[in-house]
Design goal:
Bound molecules: pyridoxal-5'-phosphate
Shape: globular
CATH class of the largest domain: Alpha Beta
Oligomer: single chain
Radius of gyration: 20 Å
Number of helices: 7
CATH superfamily of the largest domain: D-amino Acid Aminotransferase, subunit A, domain 2
Largest sheet: 9 strands, antiparallel
Order of helices and strands: EEEHEEEHHEEEHHEEEHEEEEHE
CATH architecture of the largest domain: Alpha-Beta Barrel
CATH topology of the largest domain: D-amino Acid Aminotransferase, Chain A, domain 2
Amino acid sequence: MEKKNIDWSNLGFGYIPTDVRYVSDFKGGKWDEGVLTADSTVTISECAGTLQYAQTCFEGLKAYTTKDGKIVTFRPDLNAERMIDTCKRLEMPVFPKERFLDAVDKVVAGNAAYVPPYGSGATMYLRPYMFASSPVIGVKPAEEYQFRLFATPVGPYFKGGAKPISIRVCDYDRAAPHGTGHIKAGLNYAMSLHAIVEAHEQGFDENMYLDAATRTKVEETGGANFMFITKDNKFVTPKSGSILPSITRRSLMVVAKEYLGLEVEEREVLFDEVKDFAECGLCGTAAVISPVGKINDHGKEICFPSGMNEMGPVTKKLYDTLTGIQMGTIEAPQGWIREIKVTE
Ligand SMILES: *Cc1c(COP(=O)(O)O)cnc(C)c1O
């Protein structure tokens, strides 16, 4: 299979249509068999449930080329399971796990020429999603849905090394207690856009959301979970019912404990404790870990000892180990890597 002629290391994080995407329709109470199609457009009713009442959700994962030239995905079973949890909460039909995994395999294999080569820093981003496609005007779940999955190559998240970012404590809330913060619903992102535009206008890269009920506990950013390293080298990450369970963060907890021998604590994290941590990072599929150098709390700055020039030393080890597992240079825990068979 010949790779596309793309300048991989200069790709950004944007949408580039690839050759095939997977589509399956839910009608009359069941999913059809699903197809790969070259058609990148969607045609739905002007009154579709997704357009009126935001009945839509998504997932995000990546395919990588390993050092020995295999194409793999990282823990796609967890994306399948998380989408099932999301769909149940949004009264959407569940797309079965085995079918989700099959769709991932087919879309990656069908677009193998777009999977960036090992060492380029680029990866293939996969976007599974589902939306209500049939008309809804009275408020209720739609009758028909579409599941789609497309692939798009994305460039290295950090060009020229991971520079620590600066974030602000946000006065808007991301998620209510017992709300939808723990599921990957588009609606959680729509309401975060005003807050992120405002943060950027003020010169910050991201928002740190606190718990909506008491505004005393750390939750997450708009699209990534927090991890902290204490001065005595413990890995600490917030626990809350309104945080999206990041697969990167859950994997880092295993890496911290099993590969680096660190003590791991998933617990409530008071904002008051944050000033005492040694390192801070944001975890998610896109960047793996973005190091945080500075947090601005209404003009009062918390500066981490790791500074604004480089990742903290423990964060760096976590980052190198997890990306090594993904790229096939470090042995993965059982079941973390799914090889994609490319026939051609
Ligand atoms: C997707 C997402 C994350 C990161 O999850 P990963 O599975 O690690 O990519 C974190 N927070 C929110 C709100 C998200 O939507």
